[in-house]
Amino acid sequence: MSSELSHSPFQPPPPPLPMAKQPPTRPKTTSGDLLLFAGAALVTLLVVYSLWSFLAPNPSFSSPLTAEQSKKTKTECAAREEVNLRHDPPDPTFYDDPELTYSIEQPIRDWDGKRREWLKHHPSFNWGGERVLMVTGSQATPCKNPIGDHLLLRFFKNKVDYCRIHGYDVFYNNVLLHPKMHTYWAKIPAVRAAMVAHPEAEWIWWVDSDAAFTDMEFKLPLERYRNHNLVVHGWNNLIYEEKSWVAINAGVFLIRNCQWSLDFMEVWASMGPQTPNYKKWGQIQKSTLPDKFFPESDDQSGLVYLLLKEKEKWGDKIYVEGQYYFEGYWLEIVGTLDNITEKYVGIEKEVPKLRRRHAEKVSEAYAEKREPYLEEAGYGRWSWRRPFITHFTGCQPCSGKHNQMYSGESCWDGMQRALNFADNQVVIRDGNGAHCCH
Ligand SMILES: *[C@@H]1O[C@H](CO)[C@@H](O)[C@H](O)[C@H]1NC(C)=O
Questions:
Q1: What angle separates helix 337-350 from helix 408-423, to the nearest 10 degrees?
Q2: What's the distance, CA 417 to chain centroid?
Q3: Less crowded by CB within 10 Å, the N or C end of the chain?
Q4: For position 62, what pLDDT does the model report?
């Protein structure tokens, strides 16, 4: 078994969507995309945005802010600027409980009350907003793939860019928090520890190391998830009708920092390799999910299993997001990036206000200005909107043990293309299209 933190190297592509045409086959292209824009003579500072955006519902989504929301957003932003990093009064909080551990093995009870109490003593964080902490990570040792560490660095830089632009915190974990919860199970203890260490965060956002943000402007539509505690990308019909283990993808998920989530992760983790029931769970998952072909219990199958078998208990708080690329399968995406670039360049040629140079901190304003021109783009598959997250499922950049159905070349080339596509939205270019920072 690979020691990669991301998902199983055996993971096949998701089954085609109902009614979907086969994706067009396309010639292989090379990875020189960083110079994609050279010669386009863009007088552009395609740098992306922050600040105002901290909480506002996604401008990419249709519903305009109500007056009340807009007022709320402004207040919250004001509060955010006044976050007090030096204020920690002596009043006891859950941190003073000697029994408290960050370990997944010891349950925490009344977390909502404890978190609320902490926030009461740290009022500068208590702005009723939706603070997001991104958690990602990779193994503790050097990659076996000779370019693995370089690729992981680029993937991490990509996440740092996205987080800086949107005012999110980011935590990179590279220790195995539970010695037996290796590979794709390792994220659960990391997310759990992040919740306890970050009571100020409303959401923890796990993003696999091999997933790249390919739309730096797109914001999570958090408003949409206000009644949910866990968001994963997937399709309900594939869960409930096909019972497919790839009906969802567990490599990117958003989980609310609350007791429900701790309880859920406890049940989810109980199928993991640290328990005496690991073998049994592998058999149960395999017999429940007809397309699961390997015997080990895995986190993704576990999640589908819980949706299927304990729907009443958990289902109403789990949002299965299929309306945009909350994460998307790279083979479906990479070949479309050139055409998407062309569309965006075409728009910018027509609309001078989108080409205006500006500071990165105010880029959200430019994202909003762009939105009207993207109305026809659509979302997800077959759309020409920049895909939000491109996930290199099955590629295993660090170990190099990619799924045999692709060549390593197609994986590494696809990654360079997606990461260059993202960098082109962030790097600073001068008027001749040269890169002043490279
Ligand atoms: C890109 O656009 C061209 C021209 O419109 C079209 O022929 C081609 O099929 C598109 N490629 C992809 C991968 O969508």
A1: 20
A2: 19
A3: C
A4: 37
Angstrom distance (rounded) from CA 292 to CA 258? 31
For 20, other C-beta atoms within 10 Å of its C-beta total 11
The C-alpha atoms of residue 340 and residue 335 are separated, in whole angstroms, by: 10
- Residue found by looking up tokens 């100020």 in the block: 200
User: Measured in angstroms, how far is the CA atom of residue 380 from the centroid of ligand 1?
Assistant: 16
- The DSSP output letter for 429 is B
Output the ligand 1 site: residues, CB below 6 A: 24, 26, 335-336, 339
Residue 135: how many CA atoms within 13 Å on its side-chain side?
A: 27
Q: What is the pLDDT of residues 291-303, one digit of tens each?
A: 999 999 999 999 9
Protein residue closest via CA to atom 9 of ligand 1? 24
- How far is CA 406 from its chain centroid? 24
| CA 436 to ligand 1 centroid distance, Å | 31
Confidence of residue 364 (pLDDT cuts 50, 70, 90): confident
Cβ count within 10 A of residue 67: 7
* Residue listed under structure tokens 């962030």: 426
For ligand 1, atom 5: residue with the closest CA: 339
Backbone angles phi, psi at 68, to 5 degrees: -65, -45
Helix or strand or coil: residue 320?
Answer: strand
Ligand 1, from 26, 331, 338, 339: best to mutate by most atoms within 8 Å of Cβ? 339
d(CA 164, CA 276): 42
Other beta carbons within 10 Å of 94:
17
Structure tokens at 25: 């086959």
> What DSSP element (H or E) covers 389?
strand 389-391
